Amino acid sequence: MTTLTYAVRDTRTMLRRNLLHMLRYPSLTIMLIAQPVLFLLLFVYVFGGTMGAGLPGGGGRDAYLGYVSPSILIITVASVALSIAIHAAKDATEGIIDRFRTMPIARSSVLSGLVGAAMVQTALAVAVVLAIAVALGFRPDAGIGGWLGAIGVLALLALALTWLCVALGLAAGSVETASNTPMFLLILPFLSSAFVPTDSMSPGLAWVAQHQPFTPIIDTLRAFLAGHDPGSDLWWALGWCVAITLVSFAWARRLFAQVRAG
Amino acid sequence: MSPHTPVIEVAGLRKSYGDQVVLDGVDLTVPGGTVYALLGPNGAGKTTTVNICSTLLAADAGDVRIAGYDVRREADAVRRSIGVTGQFSAIDELLTGRENLRLMADLAHLGRAEAQARVSELLELFGLTDAAARRAATYSGGMKRRLDLAMTLVSRPRLIFLDEPTTGLDPRSRRDLWQIVRELLADGVTIFLTTQYLEEADQLAHTVGLLDGGRLVAEGTPAELKAQAGGETLDDVFLALTGHAATPADDTADDTEKEPVR
């Protein structure tokens, strides 16, 4: 076998290891899904009536469900990514990483196996949350192209945030720190177009919201699911996702080369 | 590898962390099919020596050849030749004993049937068959050590590094482990172990190296060392050659060999 086939095989082995970890902690997976679902219920049934009335063109709770559901899918992606920081930190602080480092295996497989498992978990979580949103009355108008676009944006965002969280987890040095440092990923959507249109914010904050990554990403997803053309938001969304992925990937690899357990 | 050709050749090995000199010019040679025990107190440089020989750590100066390969330039060839059981547990506690061994078999690129056979054989050999389906987190200290060593043996390495293999084990588990070392030796495997226990070196080793303050202060068979220092036990030898006792006053003394956090 060639080096590449070994790398693929090692990645598959590590992917299976990480999926087993997730299976061993079903409560964590359930929590990762419960959190966005709780947000969804809170924003639709508590704030939704008032928030919907404030949307451009008005509307009530139903209109707000349509507005906020794509945002909740984005929050789901962030929520799973957050847990990956903990997995990465746990791996980096336990002796098994040194065992892997003394074995003739593809180095990259340790991290790519983790990211692969995260993608599987994200797909599962997003599917469950979307199904619940639909059960509550969310009705996407997307055609095939819109759905493919929506899946593409979610997948790229998941890849970007997962690599970012892998790097944050490796940088953390402890599981406790790793569970805190990526929290900003759950705060940032609140300062974006996720829950309210950005032009309803105070001017300074609106500027921040319009120029941070989550806004074009959420607007792109919202457009795809509504069957609209996302326009220039798509390019901003792709740019942010690719940039975050590349920077985080390089950072994670650098940190992994330095990691020493014990 | 034919017996008696050197499988470990270390010359002029130096390593410092900042001002702290950990290894100050170590030379040693280990012939194939023998047991070499590196004996010394905490902070003597034992773990650093193992880490450099097993490609985990780069030396500042010196030549290290393992099974004829240079650790710096031919790290992957070295990794294919060795098995390492470090001082800290290197098992995956979320996986069962069998899954841990299977992980190693897959990473060693064994075929499915061969992997299953090897895993069952090792579970049997290490008395873990009954516990094979339990998560490693539930294992006792002695069982974790056995699983750790079994994982190292999956790929049938011809040279094994054991870094303080019996530290923290009860007397019975310690004797079990000694028995395993003797069986490996009978199969022609070369073993490089570090220990703080003089009795362990006396029991197992063909050659004992006394490491103190980053220097090899004496080397020879246990009998030679005893004759040289005119003492009955290796304790006397250590005291005669270094001016202080080898056995730490406090087993829980902090691990001064640990690399500083970067």
From TrEMBL, chain A:
Bilayer topology term: Multi-pass membrane protein
Name of one Pfam family that matches: ABC2_membrane
UniProt keyword annotation of DNA-binding present: no
Keyword annotations of the record: Antibiotic resistance, Cell membrane, Membrane, Transmembrane, Transmembrane helix, Transport
Residues in ABC transmembrane type-2 domain copies: 27-259
Cellular compartment(s): Cell membrane; Membrane
Residues that span the membrane, as ranges: 22-47, 67-89, 110-138, 144-170, 182-198, 234-252
Source species, domain of life: Bacteria
Family membership: Belongs to the ABC-2 integral membrane protein family.
Record's protein name: Transport permease protein
UniProtKB/TrEMBL annotation, chain B:
Alphabetical UniProt keywords: Antibiotic resistance, ATP-binding, Nucleotide-binding, Transport
Coiled coil ranges: none
Top-rank taxon: Bacteria
InterPro entries tied to this protein: AAA+_ATPase (IPR003593), ABC_transporter-like_ATP-bd (IPR003439), ABC_transporter-like_CS (IPR017871), ABC_transporter_ATP-binding (IPR050763), P-loop_NTPase (IPR027417)
Keyword check for S-adenosyl-L-methionine: no
Segments forming domain ABC transporter: 8-238
A Pfam family: ABC_tran
SUPFAM superfamilies the UniProt entry points to: P-loop containing nucleoside triphosphate hydrolases
Membrane topology recorded in Swiss-Prot or TrEMBL: Peripheral membrane protein
PANTHER family, alphabetized: ABC TRANSPORTER ATP-BINDING PROTEIN, DOXORUBICIN RESISTANCE ATP-BINDING PROTEIN DRRA
Protein name, as recorded: ABC transporter ATP-binding protein
UniProt lineage: Bacteria, Bacillati, Actinomycetota, Actinomycetes, Propionibacteriales
